[in-house]
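In keeping with the milestone schedule agreed at the kick-off meeting, the structural modelling team has produced records for the first pair of proteins. Each record is given below as a sequence line and a structure-token line. The laboratory manager (R.T.) confirmed that both were archived under the project's standard naming scheme.
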Amino acid sequence: MVILLNKILVKFRISFSKNWNPFLFLIPALIIVIIFIILPWFFSLLESITISNPLNVTQTSIGIDHFNAVANSELFLSSFKSSNILFFIVVPIAMIISTAIAFLINSFTKRIVRNFIVTTFFSQFFISIYAIGISFIFLFNVDKNVLNNILGTDVKWLNDSVGNTSIYALSIFLIWRLVSFNVVFIYFALQKIEPMQFKIASLDNISFIKKIQIIYIPNLSKVMKTLVYLNLLEAIFLFPLTLFSGISPLEDVNINNASTIANYIYFMIRIQEFGQAGAATLISISYIVGLFLLYFFTTYSIHKLHKFYKFKKYERVFNA
């Protein structure tokens, strides 16, 4: 009996160690997630619901005053509007431009030309975002006025406190950042498509629209989904201070209607309004998670509907 029990324990320990060994490699990632995501979210929640008594700093209560202050803040609403412009307008434009450029590069017959262009796009990953920001300041800033001199215009790209010109400059900056990133991934996804698929399509004399349906969409769908997530994250964390210079750059961004959600949270921390910063963080995270879930379920539903109608089509052909 003792020998049998020892065998069972030894077998259990071996099985346990084999099953848990792969999870040990996830420990560094879990530590990073806990430190940089879970703990900040928890501290933001505490700050957002903690109300301090101005007459007695040691006396606190729980409430939603910070959420009300954020919801009624014109600066937050302006930042929220700017971020939504980047989400729903600028990111799709960047995806369309990136796809067109990737297809254009893929159409070149000489491999050395394709490699040179892709390397040129990829080289931007080694350039600091602040270095690129300085270049854009040189182009758009009212003091340098390089772009206006080239175009012969007089547009206040980064100094428009009345109109929306500053958000246009910020959108161009984001498109510049996203296109170079997207082109590389889409191009390599195109390179992975089997040449035999194109040969079969040419033999069947299939139109370009049909090629998109049966060749490009199945092969590029996963890459496109990943790029949408990454592009949205880039838009979320876009920090407009890289484009604006001045004595008080935070105020410049806010006055010029180019503040984003990330900039608003940083601004609240800068002026030590930690409760409003925490409330804005929770509102932003909830909104972003909602967008991701909406996108996931939408694409999942479209995929299921496509498979359903495809099955019905084959069923009708078989029954005929």
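The second protein of the pair:
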Amino acid sequence: MRGRACHNGLVGKHLSPYWQNRTGAEVNAQRAAPSETQETQLDQGFQPGGTSSPTIPLGELLHQYQLGLVTIAGNSADAGDRPVQWVHASELNDPTPFLTPRTVLLTTGARFDDSPDQADADDFVARLIDAGVTALGVGIGLHWDRVPMRFVSACDRLGLPLFRVPYDTAFIEIVQTAARLIDAEERARDLWSLEAQRAVSNAALHRDGLGAVVSEAASRLGRWVCITDRSGRIVESAGLDPSATEWLRREARRLVSRGASAARIEDDRGAGARLQTLGRQRSVLGVLAISDDGTPDSADRALLGLVSALATIQLEHRAGIDTAQAALRTGIVRLLVEGETRLAGRLAASTLVRLPDGPIVAARYADSDTSEAFEQDLRSLDAGSAGLFAATLEGTPLLIAEARHLPAIRRLFGAHGVPGGVSERGRLAELDALIQQAERAYEHASAHDGSALVAYVPTLHDGVLSILDASQEAHRRAAMLLAPIRQHDQRHGDRIEEALRVWLTHHGQTSPAASELGIHRHTLKARVQTGATLLQSDFDNPDTRAELWTALRLSAPDQLPGQRTV
């Protein structure tokens, strides 16, 4: 057998430019089947560089007809797709300490007896699998005339591809063939990377720059690609399953909140993703995520590094625009509230904000009551509805919209269970009053644990009496009106004021009032008449009764100006 016992150093030296890889621990960790979201923090994200090198599928090596390799065990459906990054020959009793994952191990079996027992074969194959070996090749004609059936059985049961190497094929030929194939793959990947980067760069020039970049990258990589902002809101995506969006939003928020730069995650169904933050460490702008369909190689990472850079620039640009737009919208609302409608219209025209026309409504809510899903749907409604725009005024979030958009606004608040208040219909010149109406409706919704939009109606106000409650002068005049009665009660030990209060509470009906006071109805009538005499008033007059009731209400012992008696 020509050159069959290749020196280990020769093989290692020949393939060293083509082999750098992850540790066995990482491979084994990725084989774990998590029952819930599992996360592995990564030191490096998608930036160019790193340790992943090109691989070739095992089937490509085995199909090199000049080598005469024949698979005899472990030929599962995916055996031909297993990656090969290294070919190594060894006759050591235990070569695994010197092997790296994705290795094809070649041996003549010289360390074994002519007829190894099943336990030895099982132990040897199991250790190779634990080391991440891709396949085992056994040369015949030197130590064994045929591959022992115990090795065939072990490889079949444990799932390790086993192939026979004919006597006329030197191990060094297999090594050199693998090296040529890997070198060709590396050159092909370099060309692919250059072409993919050129396509993505051209996509960035499109009108929908970031969206086109993400779509092109997903197409080139054969993976879904997604970009979120720092809050987890999906900014652009391509190929992402809609059912995974909420999971991805949550994990993106977690990555940013922990201050990590990259991570690999899996959900309870085994679906995986790789995440990397965008922006500077102290100024994270968002997250780039891709499906975890294997570790990205250097060509993939070069493309993803370009996507990351372009996305960062776009997010920085958008963040600046969003901040400026928010400030301009606040300025527009402030001008409208101050009655500067024409100036607000000119400013809106220069900022691509179309002011509502015709009957309008104002809606008010609180940021603390909203969710990320609500905010995302609100942005979509804002962007796709002419005559509707969101803004803030004195830190209060508002929606100002043409009345025709009210059904869509109601659906938005109702779908997300967000309490809010909406005004009556009015004109743009009445915006200040409409905002006050929306504020009052929102207060009502919050006080009653509402989970939808509450429409303003005049009865939501405290009423005319609330104005008197806050007036010092009203309290003073009420005390003056009741002074004769109170002086009489104090001088004679009578209870005229109490009798009048209860009598008016029962709408001037004597019997129920007397029953509540525990006195005879004739006694109550006498006290009421005494009160009328003291005040020199006719209690049959409704205005007199209303004025007396207001005075009694404002002069209650526990009622101070600004307080309301319930």
